[in-house]
């Protein structure tokens, strides 16, 4: 047991170990491989709520927990900034075993974990919790993940300035257990099994997975639709690290937008029960805010460069470049991947992608003619911004509206562009809806597929389904 941390430690001679040490040394170390194997075996004994319900499995579970505790201890020297958290993890595992393997409570270790306090490019974290993985496993099983922070200098400057977001932690995968061999691209504290709900101080997003699946899907979609890409958009598809940095910028602005603006509701809408198309508009609002801010940054820097004789500093040029790329990322991810990913059951991200495509098509900015997709690039920024402005106007007006009136107005905004399901009660108008009862009746009246795919998207879905499915579990290393 003592040999493993020493072997890891010999690789970090100077500087911060998480920066200097090769990440693969940890991911390939016997301690990590042992931890991963123990966690994987433990998962097979756990029920959906994370407990080990069968008394006959308790001896085996206790042995596996001993393995987990031992390997975490062996790995701890490689993560000195997480020592308090990793000590608490070991204590929580011991307490879970001593308590008879009921529903796990990892409150102490969750409260001790603060990746938001160590946002250094290349910094690594070992994350071990009983948790579900959003867009992945719904079981609250023990998972182990090795991650690395992505924090380039231009993002640090943005976050320190107009785009402050103290909770935001962009990361990439180094390795993971089965719960993340899925579509999940987030690591959120609310997914961890705890007895009470603490104040959440961070939220992590796997920018490498976002970038990798974007590159694979958009590359194929551009080929299928015969879309000719601008040179800078093509570079985004060719360069994984460039795409990762671009997604970090997008996510930084998107994430903070949920709590900013003229909001007629609790920004954490997941706590409320409402028609799924309202979630569509909220997620799209945040993405289009990121798009609009990227346009503002790009145009501002271009204007500044003209005033200074056409020259920008290296830092400003890097920011301008990424601001332009964010616009491509939002546009292509929304219309190519979001629109046709997932089931047709209350697919709010899919609806947002459909809405953006149709909005641009109906305004003559995007064309599907002779089985070829073309885009009038000089017109894109203003047209996309106009949709964001329309959603912002809806929100601002709804501060003075009753809840049901806001819902109806939101539906009207969407149906001004998209055609609803012909079987929809909502499509018949307010007189057909149960407006005299509680709002729940209105939510129940929304069809699972209230806005079916258009004929364009039905055809695209058939051609793209295999490549979209192939992105489950993808990482930047496999892109």
From TrEMBL:
InterPro entries for this protein: DUF6421
Top-rank lineage group of the source organism: Bacteria
A Pfam family annotated for this UniProt entry: DUF6421
Name of the protein in question: DUF6421 family protein
Gene source species: Herbiconiux sp. A18JL235
């Amino acid at each position: 047991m003592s040999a493993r941390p020493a072997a890891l430690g010999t690789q970090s001679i100077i500087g911060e170990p998480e920066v200097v040490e090769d990440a693969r040394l940890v991911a390939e170390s016997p301690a990590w491989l042992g931890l991963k194997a123990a966690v994987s075996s433990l998962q097979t004994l756990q029920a959906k709520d994370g407990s080990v319900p069968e008394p006959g499995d308790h001896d085996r579970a206790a042995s596996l927990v001993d393995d987990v505790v031992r390997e975490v201890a062996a790995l701890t020297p490689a993560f000195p900034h997480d020592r308090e958290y990793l000590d608490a993890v070991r204590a929580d595992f011991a307490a879970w075993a001593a308590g008879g393997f009921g529903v796990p409570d990892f409150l102490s270790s969750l409260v001790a974990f603060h990746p938001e306090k160590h946002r250094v490019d290349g910094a690594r974290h070992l994350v071990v919790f009983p948790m579900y993985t959003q867009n992945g496993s719904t079981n609250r099983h023990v998972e182990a993940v090795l991650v690395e922070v992505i924090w380039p200098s231009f993002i640090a400057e943005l976050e320190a300035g107009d785009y402050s977001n103290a909770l935001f932690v962009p990361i990439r995968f180094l390795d993971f257990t089965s719960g993340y061999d899925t579509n999940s691209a987030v690591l959120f504290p609310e997914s961890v099994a705890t007895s009470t709900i603490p104040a959440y101080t961070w939220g992590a997003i796997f920018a490498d997975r976002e970038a990798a699946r974007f590159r694979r899907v958009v590359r194929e979609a551009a080929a299928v639709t015969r879309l000719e890409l601008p040179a800078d958009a093509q570079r985004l598809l060719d360069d994984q690290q460039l795409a990762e940095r671009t997604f970090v910028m997008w996510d930084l602005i998107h994430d903070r937008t949920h709590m900013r603006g003229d909001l007629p509701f609790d920004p954490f809408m997941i706590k409320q029960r409402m028609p799924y198309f309202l979630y569509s508009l909220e997620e799209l609002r945040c993405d289009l805010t990121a798009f609009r801010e990227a346009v503002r940054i790009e145009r501002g820097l271009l204007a500044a460069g003209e005033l200074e004789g056409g020259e920008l500093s290296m830092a400003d040029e890097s920011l301008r470049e990424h601001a332009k790329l964010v616009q491509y990322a939002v546009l292509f991810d929304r219309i190519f991947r979001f629109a046709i990913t997932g089931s047709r059951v209350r697919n709010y991200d899919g609806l947002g992608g459909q809405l953006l495509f149709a909005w641009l098509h109906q305004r003559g900015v995007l064309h599907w003619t002779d089985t070829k997709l073309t885009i009038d690039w000089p017109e894109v920024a203003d047209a996309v911004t106009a949709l964001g402005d329309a959603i912002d106007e809806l929100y601002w007006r709804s501060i003075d509206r009753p809840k049901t009136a806001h819902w109806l107005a939101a539906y009207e905004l969407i149906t001004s562009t998209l055609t609803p399901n012909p079987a929809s009660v909502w499509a018949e108008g307010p007189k057909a809806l149960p407006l005299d009862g509680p709002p729940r009746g209105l939510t129940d009246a929304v069809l699972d597929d209230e806005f079916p795919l258009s004929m364009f998207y039905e055809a695209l879905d058939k051609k793209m389904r295999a490549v979209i499915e192939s992105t489950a579990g993808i990482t930047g290393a496999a892109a």
